[in-house]
UniProtKB/TrEMBL annotation:
Protein name, UniProt field: AraC-like DNA-binding protein
PANTHER family from the UniProt entry: ARAC-FAMILY TRANSCRIPTIONAL REGULATOR, HTH-TYPE TRANSCRIPTIONAL REGULATOR EXSA
Keywords of the record: DNA-binding, Transcription, Transcription regulation
Superkingdom of the source species: Bacteria
Species, as recorded: Faecalicatena orotica
Classification lineage: Bacteria, Bacillati, Bacillota, Clostridia, Lachnospirales
Entry annotated with the keyword Iron: no
A GO MF term: sequence-specific DNA binding
Pfam families: AraC_binding, HTH_18
Domain HTH araC/xylS-type: 225-322
SMART domains reported in the protein's UniProt record: HTH_ARAC
Length: 329
């Protein structure tokens, strides 16, 4: 989900308004923080979002805003749950002094007790923040919150004092960007008002995250990021066992480590890296599908065909023809 006409219509936290004609309202970080410093706790406490801009109506339980992370944002917490989704770029999210690296498609759900600091590592980074007041859970989402699933337990504070955030590595997902786009579109078209449709999209988002089962209470720290990048770069020509050995682990431990920090397993990360390379190679029509299969580390072309079609709902050959057709237009 890249910044486009939909996200440009959001209220955005950023330092300057680049284009005089752009429609979005801007909240300057210093204005957001000015009256929210907690002298006793020595961090900022962000609350009453409707007072930050005339664009936000009062008495709403959901607020959505963009955040262009062009500079560091200091240590703070909120009086609401916050779900942050990385649309583009990368950020370093520091939660209770734990450094988490987030890439496009990653998402984190924070409760009111989490102390957060955002560090700029890519000036083109863009976040979408869904701010949810606890009152919402007594309405449309009441039954979901009372359900027996990890997100519901988190929202009920069943893990209060233990888990202050949930990390979701969703860059692989085809559903999540659709849900996020639909939520932003519904919110802006309704004039920044909470609607039943918006609540329904939020429920679908939660449901999709629950069904995926891919969540973590740890997140991607510096070491996990290094390991993931190594796997992505070497998995085409090296086995899981070889990569684990090169990294100084056994394969079972490495699989458990990745699962702990991402909610996913190494095989999924390897599959995505190979398919990403396959898409790149298929765009070169000089290579046959069989050559692409071999170049991406698949021992069996039929296995490559099956995985590709399951993921993209078309065969490698159909994708290749589509790319060729688009370049000819």
């Amino acid at each position: 989900m890249k910044q486009n006409k939909i996200t440009e219509s959001l209220t955005v936290v950023k330092e300057i308004q680049k284009n005089p004609g752009e429609q979005s309202q801007v909240i300057l970080p210093r204005e957001m923080l000015k009256h929210n410093y907690n002298e006793l706790e020595q961090h900022y406490f962000i609350h009453d979002l409707q007072n930050l801009t005339s664009g936000f109506p009062e008495n709403e339980n959901i607020y959505i805003l963009g955040h262009e992370v062009t500079e560091d944002f200091p240590r703070h917490n909120h009086d609401f749950f916050e779900m942050s989704y990385v649309c583009q770029g990368e950020i370093l999210n520091v939660i209770d002094d734990v450094e988490l690296y987030m890439s496009p498609g990653d998402m984190i759900l924070l409760n009111q007790y989490a102390l957060q600091e955002i560090r700029c590592i890519n000036p083109k980074a863009l976040l979408i923040n869904i701010c949810i007041k606890e009152e919402l859970f007594s309405r449309t989402l009441k039954e979901f919150v009372m359900d027996n699933n990890p997100i519901s337990e988190f929202l009920r504070h069943d893990n209060r004092g233990k888990q202050k955030y949930m990390f979701f590595s969703t860059g692989y997902s085809r559903e999540i960007p659709v849900f996020m786009n639909n939520m932003v579109e519904e919110y802006t078209q309704a004039g920044f008002h909470q609607t039943f449709s918006l609540e329904a999209w939020l429920l679908l988002l939660f449901d999709s995250l629950v069904k995926s089962g891919r969540y973590s209470y740890s997140g991607i720290d510096k070491n996990a990021l290094k390991i993931i990048q190594y796997i992505q770069e070497h998995c085409i020509h090296e086995s899981m066992e070889r990569m684990a050995s090169e990294l100084g682990y056994n394969a079972n431990y490495l699989t458990g480590y990745i699962k702990k920090h991402t909610g996913r397993n190494c095989r999924e990360i390897m599959k995505e890296a190979r398919l990403k390379e396959a898409l790149r190679l298929l765009a070169d029509t000089a290579l046959s599908v069989y050559e692409v299969s071999e170049a991406c580390g698949y021992a069996s072309p039929s296995h490559f065909f099956r995985i590709f079609k399951e993921t993209y709902q078309m065969s490698p050959k159909e994708y290749q023809r589509q790319i060729h057709k688009n370049t000819m237009q």
